[in-house]
Amino acid sequence: MKKIILGVAIATLFISYQTSAQAKNNQKVAVSIDLTNVKDDKVQVTVLAPAITEKEIVYNLPKIIPGTYSVDDYGKFTDDFTALDSKGNALEVSKLDENSWKIKNASKLNKVTYWVNDTFDIEGNGGFGKGVFSPAGTNIIEGKNFLINNHGFVGYFENKKDINYQVTITHPETLFGATSLVDTDNSATSDVFSVARYNDLVDNPIMYSAPDYTTFNVDGMDILFSVYSPNGKHSAKELSPALEKCMRAQKKFLGPINTNKRYTVLLYLSDMNIKDAKGFGALEHNSSTSVVFPELMPNSALGKELIDVVSHEFFHIVTPLGVHSNEIHYFDFNAPKMSQHLWMYEGVTEYFANLFQVNQGLITEEAFYKRMIGKINNSKRLNDTMPFTLMSENVLVEPYKDQYLNVYEKGALIGMCVDIIIREKSNGERGILDLMQKLTNEYGPKRPFNDKDLFAKITEFTYPEVGEFLNTYVAGPTPINYDSFFAKMGVAKSKIKKAINPFIYKKSAGITGTSNKEIKVKSNSDLSPFLTQLGLIGDDIITSINGTNYNLDQISDLMTAAQSWKDGDAITMKIKRDGKEMTLSGKVILSFEESEGYFNVDASKAALKDAWLKK
Question: What is the value of pTM for the model shown?
């Protein structure tokens, strides 16, 4: 009898739990954002509430979001917050702080409405370094551009972040919404997006603008690249080839560790002549990156910067998006607890963003060493004895907040040292990418780890020496002797003769640009032996070299190409002199200077070094 009663009790309990779980799954928060009715540079947001049984409930907009490590208080950009019942009667609301509103008689709540101002205008008023970091911000330009980082428009009801969200955005027919979210509405003037929980909504930015985008596929991953250039200076078509080349190299470098099927890059170009975004850089998401740069940048410079920042943000797919702690997975947007492991989330990511470039032949080994030495020098300007784990978990407060930039300097170097230890101990067979693959298999995006357990797990997957390094140099205050790690790979400080760019003489370039975007030989400067031997004189206009046309937009490409020329190479140059076209022929003449840096000095470790940088 007891067994039967127990069985009935268990069955009843199971049915009750199942019904409760189903009810939770059936609930949703329905959001409407109207981009067609802009008033005073604001748009209205309406949020239909799920079923609420509590007498009171709090509606929040984030104080902070993942990836920025700064308090931004998105609630301060809202006005006219109103809570209504199903008959349109206002419910009593009290504002608790910048980001939170308490609603009374919450069981009668039907919806909340409010107006949202954008953050870019605030940046424009405040100047550089003021306001919200632009890639995490919002923009409203009626009929032209809306950058919707969803955390700036949509909030959550307390204890209800994990129910479904459906967002309907009404927009002008002339604007295209670029995002990795899937639009389930066929209408030309509205988009409907659905996500499983609030965190997923925050994780997917959307940019509405006139269609200017390209698409390409990289090993089964569909890439969408969308550009907003307010004055038409740049286009997705022009910038896409370099981005595609970069992302193909990244996918090849990562191999099976990345399984994303969709990825979106949103590029907003700021007009520096008006109130506009000033915080340049990028912000990572699971399946997208939002990027902000000034529109005035030359095409070649913008392409290079785009590659550098997107490569960093794309590698965040590995960590923290793919491997992360409870603090990240269950992120509290209004009372956040930070993880100890920024050395991995940001540092290893930054290391990968540099390592993949030498691995895939995009930069030379010497250029890679130079970047790492730059990080060593930068890290020593910060607090080199502050334990990295301590800084990380306290990064929102002083004195730790001021050390945050070290995640990109010493954090990347920590990743390099771990990589070197694993390469040395495995005779070059494995490195830190293998470690991250094992951590991904163990945890993955849906299974967070406990902060305190990570070092032990890493040691289990690698070697005791890795655990000793992490406890001594990451959790402890001891500065790292980087030369000893370079030496393990046969690399050390040395001097070599290095060729000087043939367009440069006495540390000054012999060419410049004109208002017509032509490349002109300087008339008030000593010219290099190469330019003199070729017969160039001041005010000559260079139009092509060895069959490749150049103008001011490609001057960076020209200077890069010249770096690969060898002494004695044949050169044919077309110029214009006093309006007449001429062809000059000759040979490359290089000058050399003694350069100090880090180079391969131990041939016996060449195979290990190659495994580190090339395998």
Answer: 0.81
